[in-house]
Amino acid sequence: MDPKLLFCLPQGDELFNPLNTLFIQMGCILVFSQLFYLMLKPCGQAAPVAQILAGIVLSPVLLSRIPKVKEFFLQKDAADYYSFFSFVLRTSFMFLIGLEFDIQFMRRNFKKVSVITLSSFSACSLLSLALVYILTPLLHIKEDYLTLFMTLFVTLSNTSSPVVLRSIADWKLNTSEIGRLTLSCALFIELSDVVIYTLVIASISKSMIGNIFLFIFATGALILLNKFLAAWLPKRNPKEKYLSKAETLVFIIFLLIIAVTIESYDINSSVSVFTIGIMVPRQGKTHRTLVQRLSYPIHEFVLPVYFGYMGFRFSITALTKRYYIGLVIIVILALAGKLIGVICACMYLKIPKKYWLFLPTILSVKGHVGVLLLDANYSKKKWWTTTIHDMMLASLVVTTLVSGVLASFLLKAREKDFAPQKTCLESHDTHEELRVLSCVYGVRHARGTISLISALSGSHGASKPFAALLMHLVPLPKKRKSSELLYHELGDDVHGDDEFGTNDGLEINDSIDSFAKDSKLLIQQVKLVTKMLNMHVEICNATEDLRISIVFLPFHKHQRIDGKTTNDGEIFRQMNRNVLRHAPCSVGIFVDRNITGFQQPHGFDSVQHVAALFFGGPDDREALALCRWLANNTLIHLTIIHFVSEDSQTGSPVRNTTTQDNNDVFIEVAGRDQTEHEADRSFLEEFHNRFVTTGQVGFMEKRVSDGPHTLTILREIGEMYSLFVVGKSRGDSPMTMLLY
């Protein structure tokens, strides 16, 4: 390539060169994609559909049919630029996908993912074989049927993980079980197709086996180097929240070097790049920096441009009637192959029927693996013509658009099946994932919260699904008028979100990193910067989007070193009340007693004693349900203390009345109380049979007469336990009256 092209120097009379054209094209794709997205978003369409449509608008089918536009966008040597930038974009988003990939979910659901992948491949391979017999007479292909079969198989079976990732995120399904299962299947299918693609190219070139083993070794060497850098670089500036931009660039440069080297030997680098990303250590400053620095530009710039470029290559102007027939057949069989294969797998795995149509439809979207295969060197194959190439490429684009639109309509038609449901821990099985969101205002709250997360996560090496998130709450200071500011404060009134809570954020990061290093348990961090009056709304929205099982809030008072309690402010108490009132999930108020209270189980050999106080009612049942996760931690000795009223009777709770009207009211109240009593007895009996009879949990019963009697007992046992778990008082129980 002429070096002048790299420096954007015009050639002769040419005012523009391909590099300038490329950047202008990117800008046009971003503008058109945003316009399409704004129009299609009310219909529930995901961003990739809008971005592919933006590329089609600029393609030879529409605007590029105009001679001047075509001459501008499709210049000499433009293909080299497009190919290189496509490679850079593909490398960046595959690395980010590896960084953000949920390894624990994949391990728990590997059987489901592998069965869906194999079933999809089996159906697509059978349809590809049938398609060979259809296309050979239709397109007059008379040789090399094996290569044709492999090409059709990858085209039909391919799934684009970036399209699935962005679509799932737009539909807010990325934290749901079905959303994560879909993304895991898409990645597994795509990486498997990359391996098949590599084998196809190797069979064509017949000189790549040695290079493949060499690059496997090089990938392993870079993974080890990254592990060393991830541990060493944070030590250079321990007081900084993130790595510097220069240190981040070191990782990107090494990644691009190995990716360019692999691609130069006609081997796809997606598997290597994804593997390098997934092997970066998850705990610590390095991983946090890479995700924070790469997420925004990749989601807002790289992926839209890449999807738009896919649409830009859509060209059907040279197709004749028989090629149109072939295009329609390929699109239909691509959708049918996924539909048959995935539904059969869903039946075998007993996946709920409400997901049977959505899962194969979204997995039908096509992406860069199919495009790369079509761009492979088929010059030795006489049947591989430009027209067939355009037909196959058009089939990828049409299939992606059709499946994306169908998936969004299916999602909208059955919105209730995919929407977050109001959940309670009482009906939450311990084999299902417990998603915990802990809110903190500063490092003082963070230490106790991390201890609570450690306790709920179970013993070290436990296989129970558990996801922990920590939200740093940063109240936005009230904006003052410029007339109220001092002179030196006038230029400091505008900050980004990262500027708020920086000192506390650094200490919180250090606490989490230290905990993750010892326990191997990852805690995802979220920062919320908003006005205090709106904070409860943001927390409730976050619990819904993140599909949280229970959210913990810090108590509005804290214990000082001298043992006395200090009130942090009525505004914090009101915020807690608002969350309790509006949250779509269970809410816990964590009262931290600092040094004298609950300590982190991981890293301590001594067993901590925890008591669950059960008075009865739905809130106490919810508290007891939470204790099921505490009971699975061998470093915690849990005791259930059941408080029973001394004057409780087993007879009918209906009181005698003198009037018929009042009698109806008392019967209704008594019936409701009887129902609550039966629910308490049933849940307590189930918990007793599961945990107490096996010796995991202790149990004792306390008979009390009134609130002061209960308070006396609580004072007696106050120093015996480091943590108490109790539900909110019903207010009508004689055992808790006059207690507060």
Automatic annotation (TrEMBL):
In terms of InterPro entries, this protein maps to: Cation/H_exchanger_TM (IPR006153), CHX17_2nd (IPR057291), CPA2_transporter (IPR050794), Na+/solute_symporter_sf (IPR038770)
Where does the UniProt annotation locate this protein?
Answer: Membrane
Q: How does it sit in the membrane?
A: Multi-pass membrane protein
Q: Provide the transmembrane region boundaries.
A: 22-40, 47-66, 81-101, 113-136, 148-169, 181-202, 208-230, 242-262, 323-348, 355-373, 393-411
Q: Where is the Cation/H+ exchanger transmembrane domain?
A: 35-412
Q: Which family does it belong to?
A: Belongs to the monovalent cation:proton antiporter 2 (CPA2) transporter (TC 2.A.37) family. CHX (TC 2.A.37.4) subfamily.
Name by which UniProt lists this protein: Cation/H+ exchanger domain-containing protein
Organism for this UniProt entry: Brassica napus
